[in-house]
Design brief:
alpha+beta; Immunoglobulin-like; 8 strands
């Protein structure tokens, strides 16, 4: 299988290590102070022909979702989740996240950017990125 994606988790791992060190020092990393938006769960998979991205985006207005593939081979997904209950006077529990989200994925030149598709159904955004299949060159036998 051709490698078509470079997922760099080092930044996330480093941030997690720093958060753990800060937690012991007494810094507040509760959801309201640490997260300024929301980070939906994302599944990434591939087969011989495509890369598949699935984002859990329940409650997100489909008109706020943007999927962009730029010249630097970066797939960027952004969305905005609105809090419709923010003017309520008394809040007893607030466990949901609201706000802006953005995820960027560095892909390489083995993808066919002309045929990327995206669909949103039942709170799941599905992005399919087709791979460029290697051209077979037949050689004449003499």
């Amino acid at each position: 299988m051709i490698n078509t994606m470079n997922i760099c988790c080092n930044k996330d791992l480093m941030n997690m290590k720093i958060r753990n060190m800060h937690r012991y020092a007494g810094y507040d990393y509760s959801p309201n102070t640490y997260f300024k938006g929301f980070r939906p769960r994302t599944d990434i998979s591939e087969d011989a022909k495509n890369l598949y991205f699935e984002f859990e985006l329940p409650g997100v207005d489909p008109n706020s979702i943007k999927v962009v593939f730029n010249d630097d081979k970066v797939l960027s997904v952004t969305a905005e989740k609105q809090n419709l209950n923010e003017n309520v006077k008394k809040v007893y529990v607030n466990e949901r996240f609201f706000g802006h989200f953005e995820r960027n994925f560095q892909l390489n030149e083995n993808v066919n950017s002309e045929k990327i598709t995206a669909s949103y159904d039942n709170g799941i955004l599905k992005v399919v990125v087709p791979k460029k299949l290697p051209e077979e060159k037949f050689i004449d036998i003499k």
